[in-house]
Structure formats: structure tokens, C-alpha cells
Fold this protein.
Amino acid sequence: MKILSVVGARPQFIKSAVVSREIRKASKEILVHTGQHYDYKMSRIFFDELQIPEPDYNLEVGSGPHGWQTGQMLTKIEAVIRNEKPDWLLVYGDTNSTLAGALAAAKLHVKIAHVEAGLRSYNRLMPEEINRVLCDQISSLLFCPSTTAVKNLLAEGITKGVHLVGDVMQDILKQALPAALAKSEILSRLGLKDSEYCLATIHRAENTDNPSRLKNIIDALNDVNQDVVLPLHPRTRKEVEVNNISIRSHVHVVEPLGYLDMIRLEKSARMILTDSGGVQKEAYWLGIPCITLRDETEWTETVDAGWNVLAGYRTDRILEAVQTFRLPLTRHPLYGDGRAAESIAKIILLAS
């Protein structure tokens, strides 16, 4: 059996690290990197740190408007499919790479498997929401990380091929955390001590592409009465500079980080402020309070558990959340047992 896996953005590199390992035990995998994220700190470092197999194809599409980028990927992935003739095409998450891969496969009658299926924010202004909804509609196997995701698909009439497997990001976190604690020197490099700083990330288009929202969030970080570490996504950095948004000295702006440095920072932070879905989950698994810089989240279970607060983008709401957050007494297991990748590989094999 031949599986063609499509990745293109840093969260997908992380997820594919464990899934590719399991798939290659019994099947042939062709790995396609679309080039959606392309510089070393957004791409290559993850392949190096997580020992992800070298891509068989690097499409080098790069950044650009959604329509242009998705169209370029669609054309190039279609050519790969025609050349390789895979039995399955595997996609992850909700990026333009995800949608392009799924559309190319559907047009050529190749079966699609979607990892992280069923997630919904119910905000159709998010490009990611459109991508995930369309991808789920044309997938034959839908691998859900939670019962909520399964219910979301049921509400849309999707029941065939749906599997509750847990979250592959928990797999890789469990495997990589010991190495991060032993090898990462990020705390000493930045002069930080455990629990004496906050960690923030901002990358979603709804925040970065709206100067008013972005300024409000940065203003909140400026007013946090503690050191803040802010690994800055290239798109976010550009918008900060273009809009002349000032950042105070206690907010330590750093380049995008590799996976080991990032989870080391997460593990030792007093609190995390983020608009990233992956970081929300990692905060929960690591037992770190999380404030989400959005009005909604796909990972509602973390909010229901009391470990995640939706603060949106208003400065006053973010600061109130920082000041009033109280740790819950319990933290129950969420999103599986850390063996999602193994389940995914077995299900694909049995479905062939």
C-alpha cells in the first residue's frame, strides 16, 4: 500500500513526525512538503529535531494570497498524485496545504484520510474553518481527536469512516518532553527562571491581519506585570512593523522557535497567552494556565475544564483574565492516551 502524506506548515510537521513513523512500519509513504512554511525556523528545524523523513517532493510554493497559494499547491500536488498513484492521500489539520491536498485527491479519485477531523469554531470568517469543513466533506477516513469532534461531524451528517483516535500532538509531546527538558537551553539563553514569565504567541490571520486587534493584544502584553516571551511569527512581525506598534522592553521578542525550545518554554511558563490551537492543548497537557486570544476555540474541552479562558482581543479583557485566573483543582485526561498515531496507521491499513 502506498500513502501520500501532504504537509506544509509547522503544526503539520510536528503531527507527521509520529504518524509517518507508524505508517512506515507496514506501508510505503511518499512525503510531500508544499513549502507553505519554508524558512529554517518555520520548517527545516522541525525535520531535524523530530527526525521526520526527508520529503520526497518539496513543492516550494511559498507564501502568497490564499487563492494563489492554494491554486499553486493544487496544481503541483495533482502532478505528484498522477506520478505516484497512491492508494491514500493523508492530510493534517486545516491549512491551505490541507485543502489543496484533499481537493487534488478528490478530483483524481484517490481516497482521503484527514487527521484532526471534526474540529469546528463555527466562525466562517476564519480561513481554517472553511478548509476543515470542506476537507471533512470529501474524506473517506476522518480521524477525530475528541468526542466533540465526532459529534460535530454527526451534526453535519458525516458518520461513515469516522474514528475517535485521540490527538497525535499528545503522542509527540510525550515522546519529546524528556529531550526538551534535558537538552533545551532556551531558559538560560533568555535569562529566565521557572514560573517567572509568561509565554505568548500570535499568528492567526484574524489577529495579525487586523491592526486594531493586533495592537490591542500587544498593548495587553505591554501591561502584563511580568516578563513576557513572544516568539514572533514572520507575518506577525511584519504587521507589527508596518503598523508601528510599540513593544515594551519586558516583552522579549524572539525568532520562531524549534519544537524542543518551545515546549521547554511552555513547561516552565507561569501562564500562556495564545491564539494557537496546538499551544492550547500543550498548555493543558503540561498543566499550565492558558488564555486564548480569540472569541472561540475548537478545543472547548480545555475551557470546560477550567484550564483555558477565552479572552478575545480586547486589552482590558486579556488583562482581567491574566489577573483573575485561578487554577482548577483537577486536570482530567483529554484527547486520548498518547497512542493516536498507532491507531491511525492501523485503521488505514485495515481500510485498504
